[in-house]
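BUG: 3D viewer hangs when loading the predicted structure for this chain

Environment: internal workstation, default settings.
Expected: structure renders.
Actual: progress bar stalls at 90%.

Input used:
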Amino acid sequence: MPQIQNVIQYPVRFRRKREVCEMTSLPPSTLDDYVRQGLFPQPQYLGSAESKKSRIPVWKESTVVEWMENLPCQ
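Structure tokens produced before the viewer hung:
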């Protein structure tokens, strides 16, 4: 009889730029540079597609954590 494993599913959590900067210890300007250079994942946007001013950039927490785990350690 196969064993059944309990898997805990956590909800997707979105983090705003300020929170991402706190998580990664990156200043906001460096985060912007990394995103532009493709060194950090692109944000997703919450809000109306018609109004770019009301769109809020967010990152999935799991994406940020994965990025940090894959950094080369020196």
